[in-house]
Design brief:
Low-confidence stretches: none
Oligomer: single chain
Number of helices: 1
Structural class: alpha+beta
Number of strands: 9
CATH class of the largest domain: Mainly Beta
Order of helices and strands: HEEEEEEEEE
Strand order of the largest sheet: 6-5-8-9
CATH superfamily of the largest domain: Immunoglobulins
Distance between the termini: 62 Å
Helix content: 25-40%
Largest sheet: 4 strands, antiparallel
Number of domains: 2
Shape: elongated
Strand content: 35-45%
Mean pLDDT: 85
């Protein structure tokens, strides 16, 4: 009788350990699934998490722009390798005076990175245009001129 009770107790412990291991595997699979899902979510909704802005800047009495800073805000959980922006310097009549392209590299996750744009001897305002974003950790490749296939559920994934 004692032997049966000990055997039953041993089986119950083995069963508990077995359920604990199975539960751990299930959690690992769910976490791995969320990891992939999270990257795809950020790629599909990148405009909610990545933003480029121009700082306030100074203009001269007869035109000219000084102290312009371009800032990239990355609110994803993945670093961005590079963000390419175009700065358009415009005159009062909205005529383009000049354009310049800047690349901001290595923007950490949940962080911002800024660069100083060059001054302009003419111009009264600027426009910032986002040209491309890449992130290897997020497998994210977006470009303003990238053709998106209609119906593609994840069009900005670099490699499929």
């Amino acid at each position: 009788m004692n032997e049966n009770r000990d055997l039953h107790k041993g089986l119950a412990q083995s069963d508990a350990v077995s359920r604990q291991i199975a539960g751990h595997r299930e959690v690992q699979q769910r976490v791995a699934g969320q990891f992939i899902e999270r990257r795809a979510y950020y790629r599909r909704n990148w405009q909610q998490f990545i933003a480029v802005t121009a700082s306030d800047y100074h203009t001269g009495l007869l035109g000219g722009i000084k102290d312009l800073t371009i800032t990239v805000r990355n609110q994803t959980e993945y670093p961005l390798d590079n963000v390419v922006v175009k700065v358009v310097y415009m005159r009062n009549n909205n005529e383009i005076f000049k354009t310049e392209q800047y690349t901001i590299n290595n923007i950490p996750e949940k962080d911002i990175r800024s660069i100083t744009a060059s001054n302009s001897r003419k111009g009264s305002k600027v426009e910032i245009q986002l040209l491309s974003i890449t992130s290897q950790p997020m497998n994210f490749c977006w470009s303003v001129d990238k053709q998106v296939v209609p119906g593609d559920p994840d069009p900005y994934q670099c490699s499929k």
